[in-house]
Amino acid sequence: MVYAVVRAGGRQEKVEVGTVVVLDRIAADKNGNVELAPVLFVDGDKITHDAKALEKIKVVAEVLNDERGPKIVIQKFKNKTGYKVRQGHRQELTRIKITSIN
């Protein structure tokens, strides 16, 4: 069993080859691929977490599509003052599929 924990978008995700992950928006290269930085690499019983050893490991993913997350409504209200503010937000997301872990 080979998998890696990668740093992406301020979070860490456990990925294997073929895993589809939704991350914060990231830009792809001209071929539509993205390289992610591994934090931990597991190959059977061998666990790698040393920074120098992880520099040699590449986690490559292809960008499937860019999306937007669900609408979040932010409301602020203060009683008896007439103060109310309403604001919306939709997060920019990217759906990727892990193609190789070398």
TrEMBL record:
Pfam short name (any one): Ribosomal_L21p
UniProt keyword terms in alphabetical order: Ribonucleoprotein, Ribosomal protein, RNA-binding, rRNA-binding
Keyword Cell membrane: no
InterPro entries attached to this UniProt entry: bL21-like, bL21-like_sf, Ribosomal_bL21, Ribosomal_bL21_CS
GO annotation terms (biological process): translation
UniProt cross-references to PROSITE patterns, sorted A to Z: RIBOSOMAL_L21
GO molecular function terms listed in the Swiss-Prot or TrEMBL record: rRNA binding; structural constituent of ribosome
Chain coiled-coil ranges: none
GO cellular component: cytoplasm; ribonucleoprotein complex; ribosome
Recorded family membership: Belongs to the bacterial ribosomal protein bL21 family.
NCBIfam families xref list: L21
Subunit architecture: Part of the 50S ribosomal subunit. Contacts protein L20.
Cited function: This protein binds to 23S rRNA in the presence of protein L20.
Name the UniProt record assigns to this protein: Large ribosomal subunit protein bL21
